[in-house]
Amino acid sequence: MKKTSIITSFLVGATILLSPFQANAAEKTTLHYMPEDVYTENGEHWAYKQIDDFVSADIIDGTVIYEDDFPYVYVRPDASITRAEFTKILVYALDLKQNGTVTTFSDVKKNSWYESYVHIAYSHGIVTGYDNGTFKPNDKINRAEMASMIHRAFKDSITFPAAGTKAFSDVTKEFWAYNDITKVAGVGIINGYNNGTFKPKQPATRAEAITMMHGGLNKETKNLPTTDALIKVVHDYFSEYNTAINAKDFTSAYTAVQKYNTGSNFSFDFENTEMIEYLVSDGGNFSAKILSGPTSKVTQRSDRFAKVEVTNYTVQETTDDGYGSNYSLKMEYDGTYSLKKMPDGTWKIYNYYYNF
């Protein structure tokens, strides 16, 4: 379960005053990080965790449909994905920039939404196009093509086993993507089916694409951050933010939110800070007193992503609306904080889940 705060429930529906950081706030609200179609009749979609992780980290956005100014987000996990769409996900996830000369594919239209992503991926040797000079951006990408692109994208950051380490009955040595498929499968980034097949020519779904990219990112271990550095990010944020909130120094509170957060966690904490600012400006009061902790440990880390588990973190949150209604609750903030490496080399928190 994603995090909440007593202030969130206390002020839902309130009109928020403009903060001094309003102009710099992300256009995406917390609602943009809550896809509507990642649940089935039997519970969560099989790729829910990977999809939620990518949405929260701003790697994918999904399709946003507004009804009465209320955003509904759909990621269409079981729909097919085009070559251009997968290229965009790959470029976003790896934070790739143009590397050298731009090539031209006859069917990659100038100023199209995918033009820059295709050019960037080509400049890194990740996509090659076809012999006739086309890229076929709108064609559905199949599982073999996706495995090939993933292998090229991660060849310098993941140590792959020898070709053939993982075999599939329908992927022979003569198949053009044999090396790519068997190497990527060999490290567990992709999987086949229970009957021993891979179905290389089958169109891939968006969920499969996200899951494969997610797996690749978590296999990068050649440039790991230190555990101390990751924990410091989380603890420094707790300290700076709580100090600012208790001092009613909202400029510093917004600064802390921006300094240490991105994606879903940025939107949540920014909006939560706005609510507290509104409460105080309207004659109310809010305070957060740390009673214990936090105690933290790194439970997962790769070159670009990490998770920090926080335990024994208890905060006494007291709210007074200024009109005679007030209450105080002891909040347990034990949970897992997800972090990502930013383009400038810093690490920021992009998601948080309670531990049950």
Automatic annotation (TrEMBL):
Domain SLH: 34-100, 101-164, 165-227
Record keywords, A-Z: Signal
Any one Pfam family match given in the protein's UniProt record, by short name: SLH
PROSITE patterns named among the record's database cross-references: SLH (PS51272)
Signal peptide: 1-25
Lineage top rank: taxon: Bacteria
InterPro entries, sorted: Cell_Envelope_Struct_Comp, SLH_dom
Name of the protein: S-layer homology domain-containing protein
Species per Swiss-Prot/TrEMBL record: Mangrovibacillus cuniculi
